[in-house]
Design brief:
Shape: elongated
Structural class: alpha+beta
Largest sheet: 3 strands, antiparallel
Distance between the termini: 41 Å
Number of strands: 6
Oligomer: single chain
CATH class: Mainly Beta
CATH architecture: Sandwich
Radius of gyration: 21 Å
Strand order of the largest sheet: 1-2-5
Strand content: over 45%
């Protein structure tokens, strides 16, 4: 029984050390800092379909880039907006790896598709919400 207890305590200490290492490796960064490491360039939006290039500005490989894609609805008559705002936002994860200094072209189609309406239009923005950096 004593061996199990010591092994459990040792395992708990090892687990705590691993958790601390993971927390240090996954240090939160602001959107501005994330955008300095992985930049979104050549953004094009057509009928809600987003295409852009992700540029890795880091000296290390990056992967699992998480993007926040916002389709904000702008009413044609802002003084008398309707009741049904079709704006939406979603996270999109790019599971590819991007080598240092390289770029990757992505395309994302919203599901369900954005509605076609005449009482306003969508303004789409894309920002880097997170990523994993491989290396030191």
């Amino acid at each position: 029984m004593k061996r199990w207890h010591l092994a459990w305590v040792g395992g708990a200490l090892f687990g705590a050390a691993c958790a601390a290492a993971v927390a240090a490796a996954e240090a939160p960064v602001s959107p501005q800092e994330a955008g300095q490491v992985v930049a979104v360039t050549d953004l094009n939006v057509e009928s809600g379909i987003v295409s852009a290039s992700l540029v890795n500005r880091s000296p290390h490989e990056v992967r699992d880039v998480r993007l926040l894609i916002r389709h904000a609805w702008v009413w044609r008559d802002e003084r008398h907006p309707g009741k049904d705002t079709p704006g939406t936002a979603e996270y999109y994860i790019v599971h590819n790896t991007i080598p240092p200094g390289q770029s990757l072209r992505i395309t994302q189609t919203p599901s369900p598709p954005l509605p076609q309406r005449s009482d306003g239009h969508f303004e789409t923005s894309v920002e880097v919400a997170g990523f994993e950096e491989v290396g030191e």
